[in-house]
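Why do we care about 3D structure at all? Because function follows from shape, and shape follows, mostly, from sequence. That is the central idea of this module. The next example makes it concrete: a single protein chain, its amino acid sequence, and then its structure expressed as tokens.
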Amino acid sequence: MRAGAKLYSRENLHAKVMLLDDWPVVGSANASNASVNTYVEAILITDRVDVAGQVEQLIDSLARSSTPIDGRYLRRILALPVVRRPPTGRSARKVLPPDLTVPQTRLISVREELEYTGDADLINDFSEQEQARVGRKAGEMDWFFARPADYSDVRIGDIFIECCRRTNEVASTRSVRIYPPGRLTKTYSSPITFAATRG
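And the structure:
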């Protein structure tokens, strides 16, 4: 407040959202030792303009519907007694974060005339189960198969941008369809097959 920041108070506010210049930060972490040393937290940091706009609208909406904090407000809350919990004797155990990598984005070319050499009914059943799991709002579930050597390092969450020429005999690139990016949700083997949700 001394530095000129505008402060507000709002009941039941639990969101952890920041906008640092053009970088929105949305996550679960609190400004506490427990968030640093004990809990497994997740935070999204991005430079996407649409996300920054949504975060800015959220912060503005919250500010307009909250109670401004002024000197009188601060004097009142600083006078409240603070009851600290007695120590439990247990020391917090450092929890290692999950192993995360940056998802790879792959441009793939698929051909419709190739015949699937595996159990198509089984793959269709799996795809329907995945569609039911993620829901229709997440996008349309689709699958394709490939040579194992080409995708040995694929991980769940990788992004696929699929381009498809309905028949390999058509020479014109105008017949190539580019689909929205898909997020890999599951892999199968014999032969290696991928299921991805396209938004």
